[in-house]
Amino acid sequence: MGFSSGMPLYWWILSVIWIAGVPVGVFAFVHAALQRADAFTAADKLNKLAWMGITGAAAVLLILDMRGPYGIIWIAGLVAALVYIVDVRPKVKEVQGRSW
After folding, report:
1. Which of 30, 24, 4 is nearest to 69 (CA)?
2. What are phi and psi for residue 92, nearest 5 degrees?
3. Which listed site, 3, 55, 62, 81, has its alpha carbon 20 to 30 Å from 72?
């Protein structure tokens, strides 16, 4: 059961996740890099340097791990980037009063 190319549906879903993972990781890193350092501690999160390290490592893993969503290290990179985007980013934005 799949599309016209004969690939199963799960393959298409994982391919979309793989393609979307890299921009998510890069966005998380760039966002962390562009924020004020004091906003992280004011939001009661790890400091800016720690989040830049976490999101930077996540972006590198997402770019370089060729197994994509089939590899546990790639999944760990995606989870790290998503934790930043879902948990840290809103708090930092709130502290700074910024829209992005």
Report:
1. 24
2. -65, -40
3. 3
**Does a structural domain hold residue 10?**
no
Sign of CA dihedral 7, 62, 100, 93: positive
Tokens 């999160």 map to which residue? 45
Q: Are 81 and 28 in contact (CB under 8 A)?
A: yes
Residue numbers of the domain that contains 77: 21-93
For the whole model, what pTM was predicted?
0.87
Is the CB of residue 51 less than 8 Å from the CB of residue 32?
A: yes
Q: Six-digit token pair at 78?
A: 């995606």
